[in-house]
Design brief:
Layout lengths: L3 H7 L3 H11 L9 E4 L3 E4 L2 E5 L12 H14 L7 H5 L2 H14 L3 E5 L2 H12 L5 E5 L4 H10 L2 E5 L4 H8 L8 E6 L11 H11 L2 E5 L14 H4 L8 E5 L9 E5 L1 H10 L1 H4 L6 H16 L2 H19 L12 E7 L1 H13 L2 E2 L1 E3 L9 E6 L6 H10 L1
Parallel strand pairs: 3-12, 5-6, 5-7, 7-8, 8-9
Antiparallel strand pairs: 1-2, 2-3, 4-10, 9-10, 11-14, 13-14
Helix pairs in contact: 3-13, 5-13, 6-7, 8-9, 14-16
Amino acid sequence: MVDLQRQSTDVLGWLTSELTARKQAGLYRDRREVTSLPNGQCIVNDRVVHNFAGNDYLGLAFHPDVIAAAKQATDVSGTGATASPLVAGRTRWHRQLEEDLAQFEQTEAAILFPSGMAANLGTIAALVGPGDLVISDKLNHASLIDGCRLSGARLVVYRGNDLETLDRAIDRRAQFRRALLVTDGIFSMDGTLAPLPAIIARCAAADIMLLVDEAHGTGVFGSLGRGASEELSVNGQIPIKMGTLSKALGSQGGFVCGSQTLVSYLWNHARTQIYSTALAPAACAAASAALHLAQSEPDRKAKLWELTTLLRAGLQDAGCRLIAESRGPIVAVDLATPERAIEWSARLLDAGFLVGAIRPPTVPHGTSRLRVTVSAAHSAGTVMKLIEQM
């Protein structure tokens, strides 16, 4: 008689060797429990430490107004949306957030997704497919890369700081029905800005759609916090603008802003939105409250930039090699190998600082790093103490 339980285990036997190889390469990821706390802190291994690994850039995740808004929405609409937005999951909290985001981004409309990953996957696959061309920066976030691959369109990769490679990709435009270029506004592992003015000019000249991912720019870059596009004075020239609610806005979810026609099209074609349960009403209410605070309390962004300037200068004085000419709250310290990144991260945790060790495949081989992220919830004294430990 066939032992079905043993047989089902044996067919997955190859997983062990794959995990062993990953451990030997210093690329294995352990799971750990982290409890977020106010003031830029968290609990790791039963210890309170300073959190320099999160993305709560404006320190709004624990703001009392944001928490109160989430509680009110939960009291009224429950803990979950219970259905996809198209069926029965779009509440007044969702509608209000979409209106708030469109007004903030100065676009006609906005559409929500259950995550930033879902926003990119669904939007790219809805706009291009087999017979089309999709052009992607080599350093784009995994959600953009996966969206390009899953779309079925012909994928061509370029490097943003090498516009010749972009021009060669654009030269292929005429061979395809439609074309889409996707790029991060702020590259999440480097903290550098995409050359948006040059990209926009090329897309306009070649009849190429443009999607800019502002996940790490919203609330942080630009005089009003509209991201890299505002920082580089091209905010009104981007037809498809994506962002998240889970970073500077301290909530959860993703969104796309643009024309009413674009949003209506995505409402009818973006599968990750059509076939996913909608965001929890509490997440929408919290994001709306955070968006209001981000605009009404500009001192938060000002403090964030003061702290990031302090950190960069201090790390450079301490002899740390920073990756690229980055700006903003993402500071990447080059350690080259996975082993060194893990070692430094563990040592900093022992000293009371949670800092992410970033290794391949998230970043290219030979560029393992510490990814230090600053929050307005931190203090200058805490930043100085971190510098002393580097």
